[in-house]
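Re: folding output
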Amino acid sequence: MDKNALMETTLGREDIFAGRIFDVQRDRVRLPNGKESIREVVHHKTGGVCVVPLTADRKVYIVRQCRYPYHEILTEIPAGKLDPGETPEECGRRELLEEVGAVAGKMTPLGTLFPTPAYVDEVIHMYLAEELTAASQHLDEGEFLEAEAVPLETLVEDIMAGKIQDAKTQAAILKVWYLLEKQK
């Protein structure tokens, strides 16, 4: 398969919005068939990290928080955006401490996730955090959430039943489940 045969070429760009976390641009592109089209793209400025904090007894610390665009309380794993100059692992450790109040002795990369590839260029780095030690939770100003340890098996069941809609949480939890089942 020739991947170049599927590529689109940027012909022009118009800045639509510049924000604190993301920018929006409208690109004019040439399609593989030679015709032109428009692509509206949300450029995430930093990317993000999510962490599956797994206890020795196979519980995962999740957080519940209001996600304004959906006007719902969602169940998610700890996550956040990268700060300038911060590595993904450093961000994961920071978010784990801030949101859950835990420190990981071991961080294992689980890969990256493109949450909405049709129009957003955000990359989320996923980690498994193990050998957890309790510390103090340090929520950001304006951040309101509740943390709870839930059995991994329950989270997998909730994902499969459609009770957990967050993409990063689904992907990372199912990856951890797969890794642990493979080790049996």
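--- second protein (sequence, then structure) ---
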Amino acid sequence: MQNNDFEAKIKNRLIKFPAVDGLTQIEMGLIVSQVEKKIDKIEQKLNIVDSSKLAILAAYDFAVELYFLQQKSQTNLAADTRKVDELIEKLTKTLEEEH
């Protein structure tokens, strides 16, 4: 195991997670914990015991969350851009009126 790799148990399996630039061991542990919670939630909800199926469903659920966050981010960016454009227009108009 490299220094930056991270080992954790999920569903009683010891898994080595590759290091991610910019993440501390604590942050990696939090992420692994989120994955385990997601798997547990899906397992309880759907009563599935197949670990590979659980992993795929957890990945899918995270991808759906990511998709919605990206959509929200794009919507917020568009709204922020419009607001900045409006402010620039108002400032330009005010400066032109002063001269």
